[in-house]
Amino acid sequence: MGVATHLGIKLSEYDSRIRTFIPHYEEMLDVAAAAVPSGARTIVDLGIGTGALSARCVQTARGARVVSVGGTPEILTMAGRRLGTRATFVTGSFLRAPLPACDAVVASFALHHVRTRPAKAALFRRIRRALRPRGLFISVDSCPGAEPSVWRAQLGEWQAHLRKAYSAPEAAAIFKSWSHEDVYVPLDAELALMRSAGFRTELLWRRGAFSVTRAAR
Predict the structure, then answer these.
(1) For the segment 116-141, what is each residue's pLDDT rounded down to a tens digit?
(2) In this structure, how many other beta carbons lie within 10 angstroms of the beta carbon of residue 63?
(3) Exposed, middle or buried by CB within 10 Å (0-12, 13-18, 19+), for 139?
(4) How many alpha carbons fall within 13 Å on the CB side of residue 106?
(5) Which DSSP letter does residue 109 get?
(6) 3 CB contacts (<8 Å, ≥6 apart)?
(7) Whole-prediction pTM value?
(8) How far apart are CA 153 and CA 146, in angstroms?
């Protein structure tokens, strides 16, 4: 399923509508891009979408090229328009496609599509193997609290953000449609999976159910 179908929107609407779905979207991408090493030569973007994060990353690492791994041809065409010759694209799933040697791996709202924790742990090990010495893995995603009461409060905050652009029934329907594909791993468990893959982890940013994490090789 393509990202637009998953979100229930037209692909041409993605860049404008994503901010109505995700609070603090711009701030999170800015934090993630600022964490990319300025001397990075190769940045791998998992599930690049329309290239919003990668476009910021190459402003931090001005000599870097982006390798996009994962995504449908339609959305990769949009990313290509944004990044031009700075990027090359690999279609298919980043869970199976080879990851090239790189200085940084980034992902924004892509890893919650990994269905199981063992599959995510295996992906983290592959990412670490692809990173050069002192390489970094930076992820932007929804990683809620482990306690049910905390997650309920965070979910309420997220729904309140949705209701700025959608009616309450529409907001509820959006969450229901996402539940068929999205798996939100609590932050503590997500960091533990990274550490089990051999990473040193750091939380760069956190608000409600959303976080920016950095994992060092």
Answers:
(1) 999 999 999 999 999 999 999 999 99
(2) 9
(3) buried
(4) 34
(5) S
(6) 11, 14, 47, 49, 71, 72, 75
(7) 0.93
(8) 12
